[in-house]
């Protein structure tokens, strides 16, 4: 999800996107982004620079088998929007969409020991209160030296606000979840951690053990 930014940071971001991201954006990816921009929940999509980061991470890690905890979704609506573009990119055979709660699908994967340590890369942009539970599941599914990426870790900057800041109940709860997760990940000796301020905050974890 894209974060609110100052005018200065927006100018810098637009420069980066215009000069380094969009010139190499595939036509089908661009068209999907433009279609999504017209959806009422357009703000849920990854920003172009974040999408480019994920693409680069997958290439750098040589990932062949990946999990996206949002491609595991409680609704087919967003997948159906993207499906024509997935087909245009000739990767439909590589996508196994799972409809339903992500926790249940991850548990189903874990029930098969053949899936333990079988994934190279995972991207998490699902139900925020479940992030810690996703983490425990993914540490069993992603191989040693594999990568897990968490999205929305700064929650529009609200994680850094004082306790008495005027927030909605939802934002107060979610920012508290993100703060707790940030603290937990840094203390988790099973992973190496890198927190980035790109988009709405991205945390990259590399499984160590």
From TrEMBL:
It comes from the Eukaryota. The lineage of its organism: Eukaryota, Viridiplantae, Streptophyta, Embryophyta, Tracheophyta. This is Caffeoyl-CoA O-methyltransferase. GO terms for biological process: methylation. GO terms for molecular function: O-methyltransferase activity; S-adenosylmethionine-dependent methyltransferase activity. PANTHER family: O-METHYLTRANSFERASE-RELATED, TRICIN SYNTHASE 1. Keywords: Methyltransferase, S-adenosyl-L-methionine, Transferase. Belongs to the class I-like SAM-binding methyltransferase superfamily. Cation-dependent O-methyltransferase family. InterPro entries: Cation-dep_OMT (IPR050362), SAM-dependent_MTases_sf (IPR029063), SAM_O-MeTrfase (IPR002935). It comes from Miscanthus lutarioriparius. It holds the Pfam family Methyltransf_3.
């Amino acid at each position: 999800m894209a974060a609110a930014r100052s005018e200065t940071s927006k100018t810098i971001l637009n420069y980066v996107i215009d000069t380094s991201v969009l010139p190499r954006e595939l036509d089908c990816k661009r068209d999907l982004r433009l279609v999504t921009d017209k959806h009422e929940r357009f703000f849920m999509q990854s920003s172009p620079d974040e999408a480019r980061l994920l693409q680069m991470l997958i290439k750098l890690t040589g990932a062949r088998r990946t999990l996206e905890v949002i491609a595991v979704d409680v609704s087919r609506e967003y997948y159906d929007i993207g499906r024509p573009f997935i087909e245009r990119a000739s990767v439909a055979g590589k996508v196994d969409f799972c409809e339903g709660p992500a926790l249940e699908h991850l548990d189903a994967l874990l029930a098969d020991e053949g899936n333990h340590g079988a994934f190279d890369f995972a991207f998490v942009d699902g139900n925020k209160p479940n992030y810690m539970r996703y983490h425990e599941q993914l540490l069993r599914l992603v191989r040693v030296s594999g990568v897990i990426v968490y999205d929305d870790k700064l929650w529009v900057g609200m994680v850094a606000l004082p306790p008495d800041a005027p927030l909605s109940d939802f934002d107060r709860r979610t920012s508290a979840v993100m703060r707790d997760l940030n603290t937990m990940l840094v203390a988790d000796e099973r992973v190496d951690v890198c927190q980035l301020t790109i988009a709405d905050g991205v945390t990259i974890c590399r499984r160590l053990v």
